[in-house]
Specification:
The chain is an alpha/beta fold. The protein contains six helices and seven strands. It has one domain: LmbE-like (Rossmann fold, 3-Layer(aba) Sandwich), CATH 3.40.50. The chain has a seven-stranded mixed β-sheet, sandwiched between helices. The N and C termini lie close together (9 Å).
């Protein structure tokens, strides 16, 4: 399986889909990890990218791309983002993309979610992940069991030391426990289905 993860800021992917990322890598799926900004509005961008690269190494992701779009101004770059996603889809040919939700209070997340929907319109499966800024009406309807990956996910989040005061571990693990409870399992990551054709 060929999967592509798209995030606006360092740690976005790990918060919403870190266990799923680890699961795909463990299964030897072909993974492309794509980071759109360096997160300069949320801390020192050099430090944040250093942390991100440490996470990538720890998880074992082989293929990753880090771009330098302006943090908090992605809405001004929509066409460029859409064209970038479309180009990456043509080159990488993913079966599935994980990206942000439109049901998110952060303007960068919403913009990237829409750019991915448009740029990835020929991809069979697109799933949107939770973030701490998703609205209450974030409505997951696809769940991935991360019981075997949850400890590694928490370790990954610890590697983002510069962000430790912004998002509490107990919040994230509580969300994963709740999504698991909804499905009769211990821990899960929940996603909104944007598109889901069998592959």
């Amino acid at each position: 399986m060929r999967v592509m993860f798209v995030g606006a800021h360092p740690d976005d992917i790990e918060l919403g889909a870190g266990g799923t990322l680890i699961k795909h890598v463990k299964r030897n799926h072909t993974v492309l990890y794509t980071m759109i900004t360096r997160g300069e509005r949320g801390g020192d961008p050099v430090e944040r990218i250093r942390e991100l690269e440490e996470v990538i190494s720890y998880v074992g992701v082989k293929d990753y791309l880090i771009f330098d779009f302006p943090d908090t101004y992605l809405n001004q770059k929509f066409n460029e983002l859409k064209d970038l996603i479309e180009d990456l889809v043509m080159k990488f040919r993913p079966d599935r993309i994980y990206t942000h939700s439109l049901n998110d209070a952060h303007q960068d997340h919403r913009t990237l979610a829409e750019a991915t929907r448009v740029g990835g319109r020929r991809v069979a499966q697109i799933l949107s992940y939770w973030s701490p800024s998703t609205y209450n009406h974030f409505n997951p309807n696809y769940f991935i069991d991360i019981k075997e990956e949850v400890r590694e996910k928490m370790k990954v989040l610890e590697l983002y030391k510069s962000q430790s005061s912004r998002v509490k571990r107990e919040v994230v693990i509580g969300i994963n426990r709740y999504h698991g409870y909804m499905n009769g399992i211990e821990y899960a990551e929940g996603f909104e289905i944007v598109r889901f054709r069998e592959i």
